[in-house]
UniProtKB/TrEMBL annotation:
WD repeats lie at residues 402-436. GO terms for molecular function: chromatin binding. InterPro entries: Leu-rich_rpt, LRR_dom_sf, LRR_LRWD1_dom, LRWD1, WD40/YVTN_repeat-like_dom_sf, WD40_repeat_CS, WD40_repeat_dom_sf, WD40_rpt. The keyword Cytoplasm applies. This is Leucine-rich repeat and WD repeat-containing protein 1. The gene is Lrwd1. It comes from Sitta europaea. Keywords: Centromere, Chromatin regulator, Chromosome, Cytoplasm, Cytoskeleton, DNA replication, Kinetochore, Leucine-rich repeat, Nucleus, Repeat, Telomere, WD repeat. Belongs to the LRWD1 family. It is found in: Chromosome, Centromere, Kinetochore; Chromosome, Telomere; Cytoplasm, Cytoskeleton, Microtubule organizing center, Centrosome; Nucleus. It holds the Pfam family LRR_LRWD1. The lineage of its organism: Eukaryota, Metazoa, Chordata, Craniata, Vertebrata. Residues 215-277 are annotated as: Disordered. One of its GO terms (biological process) is DNA replication. One of its GO terms (cellular component) is nuclear origin of replication recognition complex. Residues 215-231 have a biased composition (Acidic residues).
Length: 668
């Protein structure tokens, strides 16, 4: 029988408690506890535990799934610990002591400094500066050395068309060689260096070359389509990312264009409706943004996703072949990279004190240590803290940050023509343009602010005008839709808006409305969504904006081309997106559904100078209904679709929800 019982935990709480979930401080010292006494099922009920004393016991290691998501202080003095890597399950840990564990060395100190990003005190000493060096400089140097070792000794040994056996052989040889030959720092840290080199090398093989990591974890179970309800078990790779739920009896979706109660009789048999019914089936439902990796987290809001560009496709030339099946998603404290086909979470980046709202990709040509140039994809992520994180994905390295604003950043986007130019839109009512620079082989970089656009209200969505992305920027804001001249040769660094657009409002025109969705369908057609119930407008940029007019803050009437029929909800911040290559507009609703509009039969007419407004609202081509989905035997509560994005080839749909579920659909 275990030494630890519910009664013991309640008694040893400080102060004593009547419920496990209320305990914040717990003293379990001097109980002769062994590792097997720490029952994960019992400890998982200590959801709010912040301080834990396990000193003066007989622990030789930690169980890997204690599930203490809020643990901040841990005392393990006077035990028999032999390994510290299991401590990574406590990402919020700030103070750690494990003195008088004779088997632990300086190498273990460095391991916990790397694994625990929020650790400030180790064995009573402030390790903030040293830990930052370990996480940044040490990782940067080792990544550079590992990459150089592959390029010099192994790159040419892998045939372009390789077999599984060849991959297995070269991977084994590379991992052995790199751990033997990559040396950095003092000999007293050689164990830590080998540990990090192996980790970096495996990640390098998996991400840069597509060679799978040799993980100790079990592969995820495949879903039997005949089963009524199934729940896929979480993977323990990376940071216990879980693929949690599957729909009851997966079926291809052949839903009709809309539900009858939202359609008028005159719209029932339109040509547009019959033009194309996209057969799509749900592939994966992932719960990979959980706070503290909790499987019970169905509250984290997911906000932004964008597909990674393909490096060797001439990404800026042909949008249809410019995207991979890898998508970056963000929400809560994490950013994830997901393979849409397999549902595998390839990478996960966490900042415990952050809530990420937006992500964006760019491709930078970097100079390697041997002076060769190579293109790499860089991911920018930003959110509540007003800081932009810059991540070199292939190296699995967050190499820098830009303290862009003092208030939260709502959205970010890169210029399609200037790869280092990044726009950040913030709750401080400013949109800033940054040059993020190009990092050198040691990841040194210099960012500079080029421009500040003053907004009259909080900017929510931004879009560069496709025909002149270096001259005009549009923003949907809490108080309307605005345009700025962003040309850098004007000299004026801080600029007011140049135009505000009026839209129909019952019997008149108004500029005052929340615009929480904004995107270009093609070079001229803008799609914007108002918080007014069921209101998505398509309008012409060239016919609405008078570039020849003089002065700032001019009011212009948007030339409306059409209005889309959408949900009657007044729920805000359910944003829209477009797939320009396929003439599609996508928007989720408050019921978990995705409204899809194929507008290919309209765009030619809209392109003419005399193109007239469509007299009636255009119904959706199709509505993808949220499938019957069960989590722990129950259906999730209210599901809002915060965002939905298709890849340029229109193969995958990624749906981000308000209940911490990422849904991936695939076109059949």
């Amino acid at each position: 029988m275990s030494k630890i019982t519910t009664e013991l935990l309640l008694e040893r709480a400080v102060p004593r408690s009547t419920r496990l979930r209320k305990i914040e401080t717990l003293n379990l010292s001097k109980l002769q506890l062994k590792t097997g006494d720490l029952d994960p099922r019992l400890f998982s009920r200590l959801r709010h535990l912040q301080k834990l004393d396990l000193s003066d016991n007989l622990l030789d290691k930690f169980p890997t799934s204690l599930t203490l998501p809020d643990l901040r202080v841990l005392n393990c003095n006077n035990n028999k610990l032999e390994d510290v890597t299991a401590l990574k399950q406590f990402p919020l840990l700030q103070e750690l002591t494990y003195e008088n564990n004779v088997n632990l060395t300086l190498n273990d100190d460095y391991k916990v400094m790397f694994l625990l990003q929020n650790l400030r005190l180790l064995n009573g000493k402030d390790i903030t500066k040293l830990a930052d060096h370990v996480r940044r400089v040490n990782s940067r140097k080792l990544t550079s050395k590992v990459t150089a070792h592959w390029e010099k000794f192994f790159r040419d040994k892998l045939p372009e068309k390789h077999t599984a056996e060849q991959v297995k052989s070269i991977k084994k040889k590379f991992l052995k060689s790199v751990q033997t030959n990559v040396v950095y720092g003092p000999s007293s840290l050689s164990e830590f260096t080998r540990w990090r080199v192996k980790m970096i090398a495996e990640e390098f093989l998996a991400c840069s070359l597509g060679l799978e990591l040799n993980s100790d974890t079990e592969p995820e179970e495949k879903t039997d389509e005949s089963e009524e309800e199934t729940t896929e078990s979480p993977r323990e790779a990376a940071e216990e990312v879980a693929q949690v739920v599957t729909p009851s009896k997966r079926k291809r979706n052949h839903s009709k264009s809309s539900s009858g109660k939202k359609r008028s009789k005159t719209q029932a048999n339109t040509k547009e409706e019959a033009a194309e019914d996209v057969s799509a089936e749900p592939l994966h439902f992932l719960q990979c943004h959980s706070k503290g990796n909790s499987r019970e987290d169905f509250k984290t809001q997911l906000w932004s996703c964008v597909f990674e560009p393909v490096l060797d496709s001439g990404a800026r030339k042909d949008p249809i072949v410019s995207s991979s099946r890898t998508v970056a998603t963000c929400g809560g404290e994490s950013v994830c990279l997901i393979d849409c086909e397999t549902g595998t979470v390839l990478k996960k980046y966490k900042v415990a004190t952050e809530e990420f709202f937006s992500v964006a990709w760019t491709t930078l040509t970097m100079v390697l240590s041997d002076s060769r140039k190579k293109a790499h994809n860089i991911l920018a992520a930003a959110g509540r803290r007003g800081i932009v994180k810059l991540i070199h994905v292939a190296a699995d390295f967050c190499y820098g940050e830009i303290k862009a604003h003092k208030k939260p950043i709502a959205t970010v986007c890169f210029s399609p023509t200037q790869e280092t130019h990044l726009f950040t839109a913030s709750y401080d009512k400013r949109i800033a343009l940054w040059d993020i620079g190009i990092p050198d082989c040691d990841y040194n970089f210099k960012a500079s602010q080029l421009l500040v656009l003053e907004t009259a209200s909080i900017p929510l969505r931004i879009a560069l005008v496709p025909t002149c992305p270096e001259q005009y920027l549009l923003a949907g804001c809490e108080g309307g839709c605005f345009a700025w001249n962003i040309k850098l040769d004007k000299g004026q660094k801080s600029r007011p808006f140049e135009a505000i657009f009026q839209f129909p409002d019952e019997e008149s025109m108004t500029t005052s409305h929340r615009v929480d969705g904004l995107a270009f369908l093609n070079d001229d057609v803008v799609v914007s969504k108002s918080s007014k119930p069921g209101c998505i407008y398509l309008w012409s940029w060239s016919r609405s904006f008078d570039a020849k007019g003089k002065g700032c803050q001019r009011t212009m009437s948007a030339v409306i081309l059409a209005e889309l029929e959408w949900s009657t909800t007044d729920m805000s911040y359910l944003t829209l997106s477009t797939c320009p290559a396929k003439d599609y507009v996508l928007c989720g609703d408050e019921m978990g559904s995705v409204w899809m509009y194929n507008l290919s039969s309209y765009t030619t007419a809209w392109g003419s100078a005399k193109g007239k407004r469509s007299e009636r609202r255009i119904p959706p081509t199709q509505i993808l209904k949220w499938p019957e989905l069960r989590v722990n035997g129950e259906q999730p509560a209210e599901i809002l679709v915060n965002n939905v994005v298709a890849d340029p080839a229109f193969t995958y749909l990624v749906v981000l929800t308000s209940v911490n579920i990422t849904a991936i659909w695939k076109k059949s």
